[in-house]
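User: Predict Major facilitator superfamily (MFS) profile domain-containing protein's structure from this.
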Amino acid sequence: MVSEVSAPEERGRMMGLISFVWGVSSVMGPLLGGLIVTYLTWPS
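Assistant:
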């Protein structure tokens, strides 16, 4: 999909960006979810 939307010379940069965002979101998602459940309460 990256190869379809980016120029050949930009593919490496785009793949790096996608990998970076994927890694950061996999850490931040559970962290933010835990904070929300802890401080804003989760209706059960």
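Residues 2-38 form one domain.
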